Amino acid sequence: MEKPYTVAVLTISDKCSKGQREDESGKITQDLIKKLPGDVVKYEIIPDESEMIKERIKNYCDELKVDLVLTNGGTGFTTRDVTPEATKEVIEKEIPGIPEAMRTLCLGLTKRAMLSRGISGIRGKTLILNLPGSTRGAKESLEAILDGLAHGLDMVIGREH
59, 66, 117: which is closest to 88 by C-alpha? Predict the structure, then answer.
């Protein structure tokens, strides 16, 4: 069996970062990614601050050299929701098909799926994926693409596929 993919989970939430709300979406993401199989080597909660988001993602990709970065939160419509914009600034290649698949497959479960602005891309040898911040949104979005994710990760990291 291949060794598990290394994963960083970054929850982006003002309330969770202040301890005003529990990070349920981060927990769900960590549980689900085990099916990949993925090994969460880094988990953090930060506020909705663009510079902090960019710094963390770059650190996970360039220093920790994880295979996959999953962000939760900051993909909605409020002025504080800046995760896709921050992610866009640090990726080298955008992968529109992954978030398109998440939204399309999740539309059958809830019409709110169309409201997620999450993106996906590659930086170096790391795949980065924005998930919604709601527990249900994160769970359903990740479940929608989990089966096809390994093949994409293998291509990014250079593993035989």
Answer: 117
Each residue's pLDDT tens digit, 146-156: 999 999 999 99
Which single residue is written with the structure tokens 């085990």?
34
DSSP bridge partners of 9? 43, 70
CATH T-level assignment (fold) for domain 5-157: Molybdenum Cofactor Biosythetic Enzyme; Chain A (3.40.980)
List Cβ neighbours of 71 (8 Å cut-off, separation of 6 or more): 9, 10, 11, 12, 53, 57, 83, 87, 118, 128, 129, 130, 131
Confidence at residue 160, expressed as pLDDT on a 0 to 100 scale: 80
Whole-angstrom distance, CA of residue 94 vs CA of residue 91: 7
Q: Kindly report whether the global pTM for this prediction surpasses the value 0.85.
A: yes
| Domain residue spans of the chain | 5-157
